[in-house]
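W.,

You were right to be curious about this one. When I first looked at the sequence I had no strong expectations either way, so I just let the prediction run and decided to look at it fresh. Below is the sequence, 356 residues in total, followed by the output.
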Amino acid sequence: MRALFDQILNMSLAGSCGIAFVLAAGQAAGVAFGKGSTRARIRNVLRYQRPRLLVSLTGATVVILLACGLLTDPIQSIELPKHNGLYEVQEITSQWTFSEVFRPDPGQMGQYLISDGSLFHISRDNCTLRGELREIQLTEDTFFSLFDFNTRMGEAGQRQLLEENQNAWQIEQPTTFQLLLLQKDGTLYLLNGYNKTKVGPDETAPRIHWVFQLAPLEITTAQPPAGNYRVSQLLYDAPSFNFTYSLETAPTYQIASSGLVTASGNMAGNPILGMPQPLTLTPQNFDALFFYDAGGAVPDAIQSIRTSAAQAWGMKNGDELHYLITGSNGTLLLASGYLEDDSPALIRWIFALEPV
């Protein structure tokens, strides 16, 4: 070893171009084995040993733990599906001053439902889809431009809304828009506006007309079992209609965890059936809604559905009427029909449903 060390040191620069080049490159890019004398650097090269196995394993473990820590986000962002549910208007925080001749009570503004990323408005006899909620980033200039002197909410209230906001979602429609704001304290605000509000003689712009503070409504009554369903049996099909369903063409139905019932596929009517409200089936609200022969008695099958019902819920949406019925044996039935202004309601179909 000593002889090799002396041999390297006694080499002439002219005869050791490779070593001179390596040393010069090391000085330019940073020397891995020290910046001392050439003797010391060569000694360090000769003494180099691979790290022990325990040191390697410890280093690898530390790297893996650090990687897991960086890949795991400790701050759980609040996602909209966690706020699925039914809400009422607790307070009308602001409204367009030109519409102040109409001063409604918050209870007159209906209810709002957040279900699987979409917003629905529920009034006494209607359930309408407002649109799909899309998360956005609120900026000061954009947010403040939606208010002006015609809005009852002043600048201080607008700034407070923005500064305390945590998440925001938007619904864009051809003539209207909605902003749903989740504040840091968990409060939800719904801002309703029009895309073409007149702000000058020949000028229109998006403006917020209503600001609602929402409060959750606790549903204390039993709800239909959530899930996806298909028609397994057509139990009743009213006569005197040209259109009918078969098992292959009947719609499929969805009952959300929030309770909202919707339909998809070959749907003849509104795809939103509504929010189920518990009811008790009676001869007046059930038996009387079917076609019978003149002077005929109520068929035993119809009476049996009513008398064996364990639970029932009713839904109205526009001119449509729906009943969800669970039988004593656990079967789930859907009765669908129509509401007429100048004639009694009518049950058009009764379907037996099964989970998909």
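Here's what jumped out at me. The helical segments are 2-9, 17-29, 38-47, 53-71, 140-145, 155-163, 300-307. And, maybe more interesting for your project: The first strand starts at residue 85 and ends at 95.

Coffee later to discuss?

I.
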